[in-house]
Design brief:
The protein has 84 residues and is of the alpha+beta class. Helices cover 40% and strands 30% of the residues. It has one domain (3-83). The protein contains 2 helices and 4 strands; from the N terminus they run H-H-E-E-E-E. Helix 1 runs antiparallel to helix 2. The radius of gyration is 12 Å and the shape is globular. Mean pLDDT is 82; it is low at 21-25.
Length: 84
Amino acid sequence: MSKPTKGWTLIVVMSMFFAASSHAADDVSLLKDLTAVIALLGLPCGQVVSATQLRNNDHIATCKDGNRYRVFVNDEGRVVAQKQ
């Protein structure tokens, strides 16, 4: 995938990520969005199976392989995933 394509993909995924609410139907969408974000950042995960919202745009994602990441937007406006 070319760099411009990766950039646009990340923008689309992040816009879906931040548009998600806490409704049950949106929970599945949020898990898919978090899975895509973690994959685009090149981190091992496989699939996000649960997520806990800490704040707006700040989640703890638990992966099927056991990894846990805090996914959030930093002060520079970039999406970051920190291994927990």
